[in-house]
Specification:
The structure is a single chain. By secondary structure, this protein is α+β, with helices and mostly antiparallel strands. The protein has a domain of 138 residues: UbiD C-terminal domain-like (3-Layer(aba) Sandwich). The strands form four sheets. Strands 5, 6, 7, 8, 9, 10, 11, 14 and 15 form a nine-stranded antiparallel sheet that branches. It has a five-stranded mixed sheet with strand order 17-18-19-21-20, sandwiched between helices. A four-stranded mixed sheet has the order 1-2-3-16. Helix 4 packs across helix 7, helix 6 packs across helix 7 and helix 8 packs across helix 9. The two termini are 41 Å apart. The mean pLDDT is 96. The structure holds manganese (II) ion (MN). Manganese (II) ion (MN) binds next to strand 8. The site of manganese (II) ion has 5 residues, from strand 8.
Length: 448
């Protein structure tokens, strides 16, 4: 299961727009990606100064995300959480499209790596799915990291203190570099698995394989001790240096603001494997796709956690305005009036970066912000329904939180209707619709 196959599927569903105009990877392509952020998948057929195509905005809509996970909106969280619980080891195969070209002559300047925003430090690879393992091989990990292009064979990698950082730290303590496979252009389900909040020790490729119904295949990399998807577009085979550090950043992060500069390790690329006619995949920092790929697994975690404390969770939306990370809208079925507050507490504990959350009833569509506002207007009283938690741990990405300590104030709003008041007081009024009117409406909607 590959990005290529997913693109073919999406093309058949008219979800792909091919752009013939020759555009530069510096600002021009990112500007088009941003302008068409909610739209189709973009394939840039001609890239100025480069031979290969660039694909962008692959999973920029929920609709395509559900297609990628091969499920419907109603069952998507169940499917993802189910895969977290049942990782299945993928097959290691000898042949794969990614092995069409294999070289030790590394020249990263051949790849159309985008420079996105005005004050970014330089060209950044933003779709990299990185595999590494512990020296004894007992722990394998796959995660997504941004990579700054330094020169023809070196990148700077941002290692947030999570799993890959831990593996690098273990290698560093025995004065060894960490070998990694950096895959660019993989099936979206692989990225979703890699961004999932799983415990250290879970191999995210195994979760991806479950999501892809056992159809993920891996190959061993020829130049480093690592594995990568057999059908990937490009795999950079690298070593994260145990000693060499450089200044990394700024780069726009999920909030749409610039992240700070930090000292980060250097990756030396020692070999490359790729498809003959590879497509380079780009993800726009802070774009819809970035927010969905990062936020969606957190929605599933919130869904899972809130499901433990209320009878039913209908939907969770980490909203675009909340950067796909800081704001959650959750619709629940409640049994008692206290349920919504417990739902808020469960949501905050499931996703520590969450800052503001609103809980609504299931008659409110959490993907329609105006409906949620309507619920706040007609079902919410601040003295009873507001929850404020000062000095909790928040997100380093939120510039209004304390940047040193990450302390923030969390706010939860219970906008569910109170059960002790008459139900009909809170009912959304409806106009009865007969068949004739429905037909008239259909015709009217088609008119400009
Ligand atoms: Mn991990």
């Amino acid at each position: 299961m590959s990005l290529r196959e997913f693109l073919e599927e999406m093309e058949a569903e008219r979800e792909v727009l091919k752009i013939e105009k020759k555009l530069s990877p510096k600002y021009q392509i990112p500007a088009v990606m941003k302008a068409l952020d909610n739209g189709p998948i973009l394939i840039f057929e001609k890239v100025k100064n480069f031979e290969n195509k660039v694909v962008a905005n692959v999973c920029a809509t929920r609709k395509r995300l559900f297609k990628a996970l091969k499920t419907s909106p109603e069952h998507v969280y169940e499917k993802l959480v189910g895969a977290w619980k049942n990782p299945r080891r993928p097959k290691i195969v000898k042949k794969g499209a990614v092995l069409e070209v294999s070289t030790e002559k590394v020249n990263l300047h051949r790849f159309p790596i985008l420079t996105h925003f005005e004050k970014d430090a330089g060209p950044y690879i933003t779709s990299a799915v990185i595999y590494a393992k512990s020296p004894d091989g007992s722990v394998e990990n796959v995660s997504v990291h941004r990579l700054l292009l330094l020169d023809k064979n070196r990148l700077a990698i941002r290692l947030v203190p999570r799993h890959l950082y831990k593996l690098w730290d273990i290698a560093r303590k025995s004065e060894r570099d960490l070998e990694v496979a950096i895959s660019i252009g993989v099936h979206p389900a692989v990225i979703i698995a890699a961004t999932s909040p799983l415990p250290f020790g879970t191999n995210e490729f195994h979760v991806a394989n479950t999501l892809l119904n056992g159809e993920l295949e891996l190959v061993k990399c020829p130049h480093v001790d690592a594995v990568a998807p057999a059908e990937a577009e490009i795999v950079l085979e690298g070593k994260i240096s145990s000693v060499e550090m450089v200044s990394e950043g700024p780069l726009v992060d999920i909030t749409g603001t610039y992240d700070i500069q930090r000292n980060q390790p250097v990756v030396e690329v020692v070999g490359i494997i790729h498809r003959e006619d590879y497509i380079y995949q780009a993800i726009l920092p802070s774009g819809n796709e970035h927010r969905l790929l990062m936020g969606f697994p957190r929605e599933a975690k919130i869904w899972q956690s809130v499901s433990n404390v209320v009878p039913r969770v209908k939907a969770v939306n980490l909203t675009g305005g909340g950067c796909g990370w800081l704001h959650a809208l959750i619709s629940i079925e409640k049994q008692t009036d206290g349920d919504a507050k417990n739902a808020l507490l469960a949501a905050f504990s499931a996703h520590p970066s969450l800052k503001h959350a609103v809980v609504v009833d299931t008659d409110i569509n959490v993907y329609d912000l105006e409906e949620v506002e309507w619920a706040l207007a007609t079902r919410f009283q601040a003295d009873e329904d507001l929850l404020i938690i000062p000095n909790a741990r928040g997100s380093s990405l939120d510039p209004s939180a304390d940047q040193e300590t990450c302390l923030t104030t969390k706010m939860g709003m219970d906008a569910t209707r109170p059960l002790n008041k008459p139900r009909e007081k809170f009912e959304k009024a409806k106009i009865p619709l007969d068949e004739k009117t429905k037909k008239v409406l259909e015709i009217l909607k088609k008119q400009p």
